[in-house]
Specification:
Elements (H helix, E strand, L loop, with lengths): L6 H34 L2 H9 L1 H22 L3 H34 L10 H22 L2 H31 L4 H33 L14
Length: 227
């Protein structure tokens, strides 16, 4: 990370990194609580998760404001410019992850009064993978670690495979017993939300690579094994 003779400017960049990390920690926690509400059929926890989404949105606005002030008043160049614009983009993905947590909590409320059609094994596994991807992508952002960021991109296949596996299993339940359709569809939504969390974590990791290397790996047919 470059050091600046302007201490106030360096402090503002530090505040930006910290705010992004705090927002990321919050949405990661939101995902964990939403999934726990689903598994434990805990409506109160689901409602609390939904209500906390306004805090995620407040972070989004505050980070946008700080980033725009830095762009307007400091006229950053090169690495600093990429840091600030990356922070702006990352918060968009984090805000959407917060939305995914809200959607999972909503499905948890809908399913709270229903008996589970199967043990909840796959969804907690997906949530663990998604949260780990998010955590590592944010660590990569703070540490400017492109190898860690690349490992997140390579992990996206794992969560996609878990989603496909659960989709096939739930589809078989619906075919064999039409009475399970409503519950199975809600679980499919949850699985899709978690897959989207993995996609957003991958987006963040790709932006970290661009921030550090000035190189975009988005839309490549095949990811590099090293940078």
């Amino acid at each position: 990370m470059p050091l600046h003779t302007d201490r106030a400017y360096e402090e503002q960049l530090g505040q930006l990194r910290t705010a992004v990390l705090e927002m990321g920690g919050l949405v990661e926690e939101q995902i964990g609580q939403a999934v726990r509400a689903l598994i434990q059929r805990d409506e109160a926890l689901a409602h609390a998760t939904i209500e906390r989404d306004h805090t995620v949105n407040r972070f989004d606005v505050e980070i946008d404001d700080l980033s725009l002030k830095l762009l307007a008043l400091r006229q950053p160049a090169a690495r600093d410019l990429r840091l600030i614009t990356t922070a702006l983009k990352i918060t968009t993905d984090l805000e959407r992850i917060g939305d995914m947590a809200t959607h999972i909590a909503e499905r948890a409320i809908e399913l709270a009064g229903e008996l589970p059609i199967k043990p909840y094994i796959d969804i907690p596994r997906m949530a663990d993978v998604a949260r780990d991807m998010l955590r590592r992508s944010l660590d990569a952002f703070v540490r400017e670690d492109t190898e860690l960021a690349l490992s997140v991109c390579l992990a996206d296949d794992t969560i996609d495979q878990l989603h496909e596996q659960l989709f096939r299993e739930l589809l078989s339940y619906m075919v064999e017993n039409p009475a399970t359709v409503s519950r199975a569809m809600r679980l499919l939504f949850v699985s899709k939300y978690l897959e989207r969390v993995g996609d957003h974590a991958t987006n963040i990791a790709e932006m970290v690579i661009f921030m550090v290397k000035g190189r975009s790996i988005r839309h490549l047919d095949k990811l590099p094994r090293e940078l």
